[in-house]
Amino acid sequence: MLEICGFTLMKAYGKQFKKLLHLICVHYVPEVEKVTPPGRGGPVTRLKSFLENMIGNARSLQPPKGLLQPNFW
After folding, report:
1. Looking at per-residue confidence, does 28 or 61 come out higher?
2. Domain encompassing residue 8
3. Does Protein transport count among this protein's keywords (predicted)?
């Protein structure tokens, strides 16, 4: 979901969206890691990596592929 709407959310909310991503990465993901069964951490690791990438490259976020322009219709 963040791959699709992350660009628009960053464009609309800027620093606040980046702070929210940081909060999720620092506080929420570690709690999920604590309750994740051994050998099942792949999705959590991918989420954490994705969030860190979005936080680190916030200025270089690109619109999702296939995004229709406002004047499409």
Report:
1. 28
2. 2-57
3. yes
